[in-house]
Amino acid sequence: MTGLAVDEAAWGSAWRGRSPADKLLLCAGLVGCALLLPAWPGSVLVGLAAVALALGPARVPARTFGRAIRWPLAFIAIGALTAVVAVGDGGIGWAPDAAARAGSLVGHAVAGSAAVLLLATTTPMSDLLPELRRLRVPAAVVEVAGVTYRLVFVLLESLGTIREAQAARMGWAGPRRSYRSAGMLAAAVLTRSWDRARRMQDGLAGRGMETGLRVLPDALPSSRPFLAFALALPAGITALTLVVR
Question: Where are the transmembrane segments (predicted)?
Fold first, then answer.
């Protein structure tokens, strides 16, 4: 089965053995600071802290973290461009405070994305979903997240198999063939994945699966020093931001 680089990084992270609740507390605090504090220096400090923790103590590969954040950065850049455009009587132009608005938007978004990726690259979904149940997240939300996570691997497996078959038939030789193969690949992956998901649902229904699929998660004890750090880091970033501002 084809894997996800972020998922593989989470399983191989040095923080794999830490309690998911501890990591959730740390990352939630960083996300809160990224959203509530001013972009300078609050968001900058949050982004630096998240990247330093991921590449340092958590030992997430820098290449994996960089590849994971590049797509959020692309969406952030597009959002920043659309946020600084003003439409008036004279037509389309730049807003008077375009630089400040773009800087604030990019700072908050990048810092929040880095904090979320810190959690994603250090906590496998098999640890995170049971923790969400313990935190009283609605069961339907947890089940949808679990099914979506499993179907991602179905999509990736179908994508790899079909693309390999196309490449063996020279389907990607030249721009014209590549364009045609890309359309056929998208259509085939969607229909094949839908069929597999339907058959999976029929199989579970035939076994009388009317409730969630429960598994026995690993017992990962909480660490008091890590909890203290998870509380102290956002508090320190908040205090330093207030002093600088």
Answer: 24-53, 73-93, 105-125, 137-156, 226-244
